[in-house]
Amino acid sequence: MVQAAPFLLLLFLALGAHSLSAKKCSLTGHWVNDLGSNMTILNVNASGNFTGIYNTSVSATSNDIKPSPLLGSQHLPDQPTFGFTVNWSFSDSITVFTGQCFMDDEGKETLRTMWLLRSRVENIKNDWKATRVGYNDFKRLE
């Protein structure tokens, strides 16, 4: 039995390492970003398309914030790139996000994103102030 212990330990470590490397980032689920905004991404279909709901915690408008629909697409490898659009329900603006899902050594996922927010302006002379750029990291809500 003593001679089997090193073999079993080695087998256990090998299987454990294999299961870590076999993990895959999944966009499906509930996420929160560094500003406290949260989103729910519903099931990603076989083509990589998905829908969801985004609830922002920040806004430049005085309107009441409401959950807003999102529509996106991703590639399907282990750490996928993705993009999605949020059509804000409470303002005349749209935000597009693009990013990648990363998995750390402990199996924790991070969605690293950059975004462009386009607000409606009255005329082309005001176009200079219509687009904002930023970035957010999202962590899975557990």
Automatic annotation (TrEMBL):
The entry's keywords: Biotin, Disulfide bond, Glycoprotein, Secreted, Signal
GO MF annotation terms: biotin binding
Leader peptide range in chain numbering: 1-22
Cellular component terms per the entry's GO annotation: extracellular region
Disulfide bonds, paired cysteine numbers: 25-101
Gene3D superfamilies (alphabetical): Avidin-like (2.40.128.30)
Subcellular location: Secreted
Self-association and partners: Homotetramer.
Membership in a protein family: Belongs to the avidin/streptavidin family.
Function: Forms a strong non-covalent specific complex with biotin.
Name used for this protein in its record: Avidin
Species of the source: Erythrocercus mccallii
